[in-house]
Amino acid sequence: MELSKNIFFNTDKLVENTVVKISYTGELFQDGSDSVSIHYGFGPDWDNVNDVAMEKTELGFQAEIELSGSESFNFCFMNEDEKWDNNNNENYIFPLEKIQNELVVLEDEPVSLGSARKLRRSYLWSKKIRLTIYKLITYLPKLISGNYKRRIKPDNVATASASNVQADNSNDSNVD
Hints:
Elements: E1 2-4, E2 7-9, E3 19-24, H1 27-30, E4 36-42, E5 47-53, E6 55-57, E7 60-66, E8 72-79, E9 84-85, E10 92-95, H2 114-145, H3 154-175
């Protein structure tokens, strides 16, 4: 993101309480300075003033800065000869956006599909257990008392009837 000519940031927005990488390719870089420092502070009163030496690369001078919780980020640049690039005595001043708390995701509480699967599995097990208990309560007393009659399938009934008829016929023939 280019917020000003020859000053680039590695992010689209400057947000409070984040770390931002600044790349500077301005007047001091173009003049061939060996070292450049960024002099910065926060808010209209330049609170928490600090100087950080920037690393010289082929793409310009670069540094990482932690943005504090304030309304603006103020900075300027100075080389080893104490020559300043301060935006024609205006300084570089950019507003900082506030973090929106409702959009922050807590890393302590991972959200996964595994928990949904566990809930479904436990629900199915609870249904199976309830069905088993129902069957025990319903049929166990009948089994113990002897009142439980086993149902015979219709195919078995026809076969049993045919065998009973044959047995009766054979008994009849023995009686003569």
